[in-house]
Each structure stands twice: as structure tokens, then as C-alpha cells.
Specification:
Its cofactor is FAD. This protein is α+β, with helices and mostly antiparallel strands. The protein is built from 16 helices and 18 strands.
């Protein structure tokens, strides 16, 4: 009884000590950014403790809403002086636990940094603050004839998309964030501010200095906090043609994808959904698609050539036992189709109410796609797991949305087994353990398998050089 009583007293003491520390932290931060930009309530801290993944959430001690790069710089400088962790937060749509605060500290919410700073239509680029979302940017530029096509599905913040090197459904034509970021403004761990491609850099190419831009694209807030981004824009196509192609079996759908890509056909999107994913989308989005392995395709071009693209794709698909090839030229029909695809994550979780999803994210060379998708299906069956498959298969990237009861340790363990097996198979065929979601907290061991000791040690040296006190998003990536 005395041991129990002593344990309770110690817990209460530590709780009160941390509470007092949090209140002092909040008071200091209010003097920097104002009372309205600092929150310590349990509800706000809980909201900022997790992302969309099944990874356990950890609440920060304080949430601070920055409204400028100057705010971010002063906050980081203060936190560095106190050795307090800083965790950047965009919209919370990540799926690898990248925004959790396992050591407490300050969650730096960038959502109020939501200004489009410049649009250079003649140069096909723009500069935005980190909190601007993908949809907000496209709404802002809709009358210019331009678009920002990197489309991860969720309405993510552009700073967060830079930080995770996001991509999405149109990466096969327009590339990922790495190919579309021209310059970044970044606050480093000591509060200093840099521009990664020069103080005014907006050129399409450069051989000047180290490639700092791509160092910070994909670093997940562990090397610096992105506050502004200069991004490439693309012309809105004159004509768009979408199509739905169900197949007799999975092998046919995947082989058709490989054949279309190897033919050089300039397809804008080519998404694969297995029969379980199609069923989930039918239920969740009220569609009426054939429950079969299916490709969603989209072609961008001119009125004179787009139908020819569609016809070549149709002929290719039918040579691999496509059951039908239905075109959708109507804007509303296309929007309905892609909205259903973007809601696939929620549709999958709705198959098992109360569940959470774990999304694998491997990417492999196109020639290895058929074999690894078959491997993914076989492993699901072996482990008796429910896992609809969906993916941006045009660039070899696909996801298995494994549906899991987060309160069932046995299921969690099976999911870990599955994700490890799939990732190691991806590495065996010269792929990567993450095509677009990042490492976060869930794939750190896999990163070692992918890069080896020398590669990881190089990353650690960079981390040590830029963040020697390990205050920037600690516990993530490395």
C-alpha cells in the first residue's frame, strides 16, 4: 500500500511540475506572439496531438499559432534557449504520426500563415505562406488559366506537402513536390532564416551552391520549419477525358497499367483500385461501379488529340481482359469519380466502424509492379487482414489501407508484420518504403534497411549540424 501511495504521490508531483512548466512556457510565448495565438486547453492540445494515422497521439504542452515568419523565428529562438521541442503542424492530414509530441513541447501551428504572396503567371510560378492549402491556392488562381496539380487527396497545407514530399494522383504527369518546389523560406533550429535557392530565386534551374531546396523537401520538420514556398504552376489543359476500366482480375489491371506507361502515352492519372476498394467506394460515395479490379484514368491534352489518347488506352486495356472501358467527359461525372477516389481512405475505414486505417506506401519500378501487388494480396490473405488496395500505379506507388482495431494488440502486431514484409519486398525489387507519406514515427527501422549504415550516418550528421540540440520534431525520421 505504501508503494502504491508513493507512486501516486510521485505521479501527482510530476504532473504538477509539468503543469507549472507548461504555464510558464505559455506565459513567455504570449509575450512573443500575443494572447490570442497561444492555447493550453486540453481540447486544443488533443486536436494537435495526432494525425489521420493509427499511431498513438501525444499532446504538446502548448499550441502556438504563428502568423508570420518573424513569429516562427522568435518562437524557435526562444525554444532553443529553453531546449524545448518544436513540432510544426499544418492541417493534420498526415498518416505517419509526424505531428505527435512524444516529448511534449510546443506545437507550432502554421495554419494562420495562409496568404498567397505572389502569382507570376507569365513565369508559371507563385509564392505562398506555408499554411495555404492546395485547394485554396487553386481557387485563388482559377482565373489565370493555371493550376497547382500536385494532388495528395486531402486538402493538405502546401508547407506540409513540401515537408513530406507529397505527390498524389497526378504525379505521373506533373511530378511530385520535389519537382515542383523552386525555393523555400526555412527557419532553422537557432531561429535564423534562410532561402534555399537564393534570396530572390525563381529561376527554373540553377547550378549555384548545394541543393538546399531538396534537402528541406521531405525532411518532415526535423531540419527546419518551412514558412514560405515558391512553387511551379502548370497550364490548365484545354481538354480532359476520364475513363473507368474494370478488369477480369488483378493481374490484368496491373499489366495494363505497365503496358500503358511503357507505351509512352501521356496519361495524367492512372489509379488502381482492387475489388475491395471498389466495393468500399460504392458504399461510401454512392457509386455503382462493377466490383472488380479497376483503373481510373484521366488524359489531359487538346481537343484534337485527347480522344486518340483515350482510344489507345482502351485498346491496351481490352488486350488485358478489360470488361468495359467507359469514358466520362462530363465535368460533374469526372468530379464524382475523383471525389470518390480521394475519399477512399474514409471509405475503407467505413467497412469496419470504429476501426483505424494503416496505409502502406511502397513505390517500385514499373516493371516490378505486377509482382509486388500480387505479393501484397497474398500476404493479406495469409495474415487474415482486411486491406483494400489503391494506388497511383502510373508511377509505381500504391497503398494498402489495412483496417485495424486500435485497441486489439494482436491486430496491431499483424499490421506491423504486414507492413514490414511489404516494405522489405519493395526494397528487394529496388523500390522504396515510402513514395509520398514520409517516415514519421512508423518507418524509422525501414529507413535503415533502405539506406544502410553509411547513408543513415550521413543523415544523422546533417541533423546534428542543423539541429544540435534535437529540438525540431524530435523522434521522427531518425
Amino acid at each position: 500500500m505504501n508503494i502504491i501511495k508513493s507512486t501516486k504521490v510521485l505521479f501527482l508531483y510530476k504532473f504538477m511540475q509539468r503543469y507549472a512548466s507548461s504555464q510558464a512556457l505559455a506565459t513567455d510565448l504570449k509575450s512573443i506572439v500575443g494572447n490570442d495565438n497561444v492555447a493550453t486547453s486540453t481540447a486544443v492540445r488533443e486536436q494537435h496531438s495526432h494525425d489521420e494515422s493509427y499511431h498513438p497521439g501525444h499532446k504538446p504542452d502548448v499550441v502556438v499559432f504563428a502568423q508570420s515568419t518573424d513569429h516562427v523565428s522568435k518562437i524557435v529562438k526562444y525554444c532553443a534557449s529553453k531546449r524545448v521541442p518544436v513540432i510544426p503542424f499544418g492541417t493534420g492530414t498526415g498518416v505517419e504520426g509526424g505531428v505527435t509530441a512524444p516529448q511534449g513541447g510546443v506545437c507550432l501551428d502554421l495554419s494562420r500563415m495562409d496568404k498567397v504572396l505572389s502569382i507570376n503567371a507569365e513565369d508559371f510560378d507563385c509564392t505562398v505562406q506555408a499554411g495555404v492549402t492546395r485547394n485554396a491556392l487553386n481557387t485563388y488562381i482559377r482565373d489565370t488559366g493555371l493550376q497547382f496539380p500536385i494532388d495528395p487527396g486531402a486538402n493538405a497545407s502546401l508547407g506540409g506537402m513540401c515537408a513530406t514530399s507529397a505527390s498524389g494522383t497526378m504525379a505521373v504527369r506533373y511530378g511530385t513536390m520535389r519537382e515542383n518546389v523552386m525555393n523555400l523560406e526555412v527557419v532553422l533550429a537557432d531561429g535564423s532564416i534562410i532561402k534555399t535557392a537564393g534570396l530572390k530565386g525563381r529561376s527554373r534551374k540553377t547550378s549555384s551552391g548545394y541543393n538546399l531546396t531538396n534537402l528541406f523537401v521531405g525532411q518532415e520538420g526535423t531540419l527546419g520549419i518551412i514558412t514560405e514556398a515558391t512553387l511551379k504552376l502548370h497550364a490548365i489543359p484545354e481538354a480532359v477525358l476520364a475513363a473507368v476500366a474494370p478488369f477480369k482480375d488483378l493481374q490484368g489491371a496491373v499489366n495494363a497499367t505497365v503496358a500503358i506507361m511503357q507505351s509512352g502515352l501521356p496519361v495524367a492519372r492512372i489509379e488502381f483500385l482492387d475489388e475491395n476498394m471498389v466495393d468500399a467506394c460504392n458504399r461510401f460515395s454512392k457509386l455503382n461501379l462493377d466490383i472488380a479490379p479497376t483503373l481510373f484514368l484521366e488524359f489531359h491534352g487538346s481537343n484534337s488529340n485527347i480522344e486518340a489518347q483515350g482510344q489507345i488506352a482502351e485498346e491496351t486495356c481490352k488486350s488485358y481482359e478489360c470488361l468495359q472501358f467507359a469514358f466520362a467527359t462530363d465535368v460533374d461525372k469526372r468530379a464524382e469519380l475523383w471525389k470518390a477516389r480521394h475519399n477512399a481512405w474514409y471509405a475503407a475505414q467505413a467497412l469496419k466502424p470504429g476501426s483505424k486505417g494503416y496505409s502502406t506506401d511502397v513505390c517500385v519500378p514499373i516493371s516490378a509492379l505486377s509482382g509486388i501487388v500480387t505479393f501484397a494480396k497474398d500476404e493479406l490473405k495469409r495474415l487474415n487482414l482486411l486491406g483494400p488496395i489503391v494506388g497511383h500505379v502510373g508511377d509505381g506507388n500504391f497503398h494498402v489501407f489495412v483496417i485495424v482495431d486500435p485497441t486489439n494488440p494482436k491486430e496491431i502486431e499483424l499490421v506491423h508484420q504486414y507492413s514490414m514484409a511489404l516494405a522489405k519486398e519493395a526494397l528487394r525489387v529496388s523500390g522504396t518504403v515510402t513514395g509520398e507519406h514520409g517516415i514519421g514515427v512508423g518507418k524509422k527501422k525501414l529507413l535503415i534497411d533502405e539506406f544502410g549504415a553509411a547513408g543513415i550516418n550521413t543523415m544523422k550528421a546533417i541533423k546534428q549540424a542543423l539541429d544540435p540540440m534535437n529540438i525540431l520534431n524530435p523522434g521522427k525520421v531518425l
